[in-house]
Design a protein that fits this description.
By secondary structure, the chain is of the alpha+beta class. Helices cover 37% and strands 22% of the residues. α2 packs across α15 and α8 packs across α13. Bound molecules: adenosine monophosphate (AMP).
Length: 363
C-alpha cells in the first residue's frame, strides 16, 4: 500500500475551521495530560476509547467528546477517521496510539492530520534504524555485540519490539547466554523467531534517566521538559533482596516497566542532556525530514564516569511524561508555571494557528 500523500493531509487541514480545532487521541498511555493541556489552551478534546476504559476520562473530566470503540485498533476504521475529521481533529500520537493503530496503518491509511512527523515513528520501532539515527547523530550508545560467541563482558540481551523489557536478560559469557535463552523459551517469553532478532549490547552499569524533550518546529529549538526514571519488575524487587537470597531464589531478572517516578539530573550533567537533544534533532532533520517535531524521549543510563549513554528512544510522547502532568522542575523554568508535555503540545498547535504555520508541524 502506498504512503499517505502529504498533500492530501494538507488538503484536509485546509478545510478545517482553525477556530474550532479538536485535539484527539486514543484513551490510554499519556493521554490525560494531552487532554488536560489541550483544554487549558482552549481546544475541544476527543477521546477514542475502548468500551470499559472510559472511567479516567470521565472522572478527571478532561474530555469533551467520546468516540467509543470495541477495540483500540478501531481508531483506523474509516467511520472513526471520519468522525475525527468532522470535528477538525488533530491527533496527538503516543505509545499506545502507535501500538494499537499500527505503524503500517499510520503510514498508509490513517488520513487524519497528526501533530509531529509520522515518518519518524518507524525509526523508533526498528532497532537498526534507531541505531543508525543515534550513531549518525553522534549520540553515545551501548556497544553492539554482533555474535553471541563474541561475548567477553557483561551484556544486555534484548528482543524485537517494545515489550516493556519482558524477556530481556543479562549474561556474562556465551554459555550463560545459551542457558538463559533456554530459560526464556521455557517460560514462553520468547519464541524461536525472537532469537534470530536477538540484540546483544554492552551492559551499562548506571542509573536510569529518561529525558523528555520537546522539539519546537516553529522555534527550531529543543526544550528539556522533564526527566523520569522507571520502576521495573523484577529487577527493582530483586535489588531489595540481600545478595545471598538473590542467589538462593535463582530467578532471572526481568525489566517489565510497572511505573515511573520524576527525577532530576545533577546540574553538571544538563549540558550533556541538551547536547544529546540538539545532536539527535539535527541528525534526524537529514535522515527523516523534517526530523523530530514535538515530544520525544531519550532513555539513558549514567555511569560513574558521568557519561550519559542512550539505550533507547521514543519518537513521540513517552509514558514517563505522566510524571509531570502538573509540570516538572525543568518545564517550570521555561514559563514560570506548571507545564505538562500535553499542554506544551497544545501551545505549539495554538502558535501554529496564530502564525499560520500549522502545515510545518502537521503530517
Ligand atoms: P528497554 O526495553 O530498552 O527500555 O529496556 C528496559 C530496561 O533494561 C531499561 O529500563 C534498563 O533498566 C535496562 N537496560 C536496557 N539497556 C541496557 C543496557 N545496555 N545496559 C544496562 N541496562 C539496560
Amino acid at each position: 500500500m502506498s504512503k499517505i500523500d502529504r498533500q492530501k493531509i494538507m488538503g484536509i487541514l485546509d478545510e478545517y475551521d482553525k477556530e474550532d480545532i479538536t485535539i484527539a487521541t486514543l484513551g490510554s498511555h499519556s493521554s490525560l495530560h494531552m487532554f488536560q493541556g489541550a483544554k487549558t489552551e482552549g481546544f475541544r478534546t476527543a477521546v477514542v476509547c475502548e468500551k470499559g476504559r472510559e472511567v479516567p476520562y470521565k472522572r478527571f473530566g478532561v474530555c469533551d467528546e467520546y468516540i467509543m470503540v470495541d477495540h483500540f485498533s478501531d481508531i483506523v476504521n474509516e467511520e472513526v477517521q471520519e468522525q475525527l475529521r468532522d470535528m477538525n481533529s488533530i491527533v496527538f500520537p503516543h505509545g499506545s496510539f502507535v501500538a494499537y493503530a499500527g505503524l503500517d496503518n499510520i503510514e498508509t491509511i490513517f488520513n487524519v492530520p497528526m501533530f509531529g512527523n509520522r515518518d519518524i515513528l518507524r525509526w523508533e520501532a526498528e532497532r537498526d534504524l534507531e541505531r543508525k539515527l543515534m550513531t549518525e547523530s553522534g549520540v553515545r550508545i551501548p556497544k553492539k555485540i554482533k555474535n553471541p560467541a563474541d561475548i567477553d563482558g557483561t551484556v544486555m540481551v534484548k528482543f524485537p519490539g517494545a515489550r516493556g523489557g519482558r524477556g530481556y536478560f543479562v549474561a556474562n559469557s556465551t554459555e550463560e547466554y545459551d542457558e538463559k535463552i533456554e530459560t526464556m523459551m521455557a517460560r514462553n517469553w520468547i519464541e524461536e523467531e525472537d532469537i534470530k532478532g536477538a540484540h546483544i549490547e554492552e551492559y551499562v552499569l548506571g542509573c536510569n534517566y529518561c529525558i523528555h524533550y520537546f522539539f519546537s518546529g516553529l522555534k527550531d529549538e529543543v526544550e528539556l521538559m522533564g526527566i523520569d526514571s522507571r520502576y521495573e519488575s523484577t529487577i527493582d524487587g530483586l535489588v531489595r533482596v540481600p545478595a545471598k537470597d538473590q542467589i538462593d531464589m535463582g530467578v532471572n531478572a526481568s525489566y517489565v516497566v510497572t511505573g515511573n517516578h520524576p527525577v532530576v539530573l545533577r546540574e553538571s550533567l544538563l549540558p550533556q542532556a541538551f547536547d544529546i537533544g540538539d545532536k539527535i534533532t539535527e541528525g534526524a532533520k537529514g535522515l527523516v525530514p523534517p526530523g523530530f517535531n514535538g515530544p520525544f524521549c531519550m532513555q539513558t543510563l549514567v555511569n560513574d564516569d558521568l557519561e550519559v549513554v542512550v539505550f533507547e528512544m521514543s519518537a513521540r510522547s513517552d509514558g514517563g511524561t505522566n510524571t509531570f502532568m502538573n509540570g516538572s522542575a525543568y518545564s517550570y523554568l521555561y514559563y514560570g508555571e506548571p507545564l505538562s508535555m500535553g499542554r506544551r503540545m497544545a501551545m505549539e498547535i495554538k502558535n501554529g494557528i496564530a502564525e499560520d504555520r500549522l502545515d510545518e508541524i502537521i503530517t
